[in-house]
Design brief:
By secondary structure, the chain is an alpha+beta fold. The chain folds into two domains: about 150 residues, Cytidine Deaminase, domain 2; about 180 residues, no CATH class. Helices cover about 55% and strands about 10% of the residues. The protein contains 14 helices and six strands. Strands 2-1-3-4-5-6 form a six-stranded mixed beta sheet, with helices on both faces.
Length: about 350
């Protein structure tokens, strides 16, 4: 990243998609001024000075919290949308004594610098660039960091299944509900005391463990009935938190496949838990855009889903993936719920 073209080649791969009508902030830190974090805002359209100031304040707070020593600012879109935000951010950076290595505007395959006024290197018509052909882009694709053509293209990777697949999952989900009812009836007939959902929770925890093991071994859920059962039992917080405690960061790519499969196939009422688990795993992996899209899926299904709201606040504050730690083991999670249950 020794030139504006190099920076622009890298940005889509950091975000996961090629931005448009966006403002991107890159935070650099030692050694060698490496990119420590990057985040993006939608450009206010129409321009709004108050929103631009809010963006600038929010960005500076994140950069200060992460002890960023230098930043690069990039606006994607027409000048009348980019410039108000660029001006607000430049003023805020000056107030914070944060050096700006570059401030760029990008549109239609050309870039302009707000800091360079030399027509020899920064002509009025802009400088053409090709982010696809740049060696940095090729290196990142090889490293497993592709870039979707747009954010909407990323959203479609979590779109629910339709047609025959959706009908099949609806049938499997109804069978899962009947299975829950049968387990409850079995516990009542046995005369066991305590939580009538305990058999469901035990079976759900076992399903979680088996699904994670299957994916770590390179497999997948065998059929719609397994997927539906997992999605239904994850609606119980004890099962969901057991799964949460199993999200070992050494297996993030595996876990991303698991939760993506369930989010896409689960019936709408059972999307929030796997979507929130996908958001947590994406945050662990440093895939902030995917995490935010997963949060959107969870909150579309249940606007008050607490885990999704918590993760939304965490990502909005720019908390780094290194903080995505597991505070408890599955055994400790089970013990904490057991202590909270009446009569225990």
């Amino acid at each position: 990243m020794d030139s504006p073209a190099g920076v622009l080649a890298v940005v889509p791969h950091l975000l996961g998609f090629h931005p448009s009508k966006s403002f991107v902030v890159l935070g650099l830190a030692p050694p060698r001024a490496r990119v420590k974090l990057g985040f993006r805002y939608d450009l206010p359209d129409p321009p709004d000075a108050a929103v631009a100031e809010e963006i600038a304040g929010h960005a500076m707070a994140i950069l200060a919290r992460q002890r960023i020593t230098t930043a690069i600012l990039i606006g994607y879109g027409p000048g009348h949308l980019v410039t108000p935000v660029a001006d607000a951010l430049r003023a805020a950076a000056g107030g914070a004594r944060l050096p700006l290595r570059e401030v760029l505007r990008v549109e239609d395959g050309r870039y302009w610098s707000y800091l360079c006024h030399d027509p020899a290197c920064c002509p009025a018509e802009g400088v053409p660039y090709d982010s696809f052909a740049h060696p940095a882009a090729a290196a990142l694709v090889t490293a497993g960091l592709p870039a979707y053509p747009s954010r909407q293209a990323m959203v479609r990777t979590l779109a629910p299944v339709t047609g025959a697949a959706a009908e099949s999952m609806a049938g499997a989900t109804e069978r899962a509900r009947r299975r829950v009812a049968a387990l409850l009836a079995e516990q009542r007939r046995s005369g066991r005391s305590g939580d009538v959902l305990q058999l469901v929770v035990q079976d759900g925890r076992r399903a979680v463990s088996e699904a994670i093991s299957a994916y770590r071994d390179g497999g997948r859920l065998a059929d719609d009935d397994e997927t539906a059962w997992l999605s239904v039992t994850l609606a119980d917080l004890r099962v969901r938190d057991d799964a949460w405690a199993r999200m070992d960061p050494d297996y993030t790519e595996v876990h991303l496949r698991l939760w993506t499969d369930i989010v896409r196939r689960a019936c709408p009422a059972y999307v929030p838990a796997p979507a929130a688990l996908l958001a947590f795993t994406a945050w662990q992996a440093g895939e902030g855009t995917l995490a935010n899209i997963a949060i959107e899926r969870a909150l579309d299904a249940d606007p008050q889903y607490s885990m999704a709201l918590l993760l939304s606040d965490v990502l909005d504050a720019g908390v780094p993936p290194s903080e995505a730690r597991l505070p408890m083991t599955p055994e400790e999670v089970a013990e904490s719920y057991a202590r909270a249950e009446p009569g225990t």
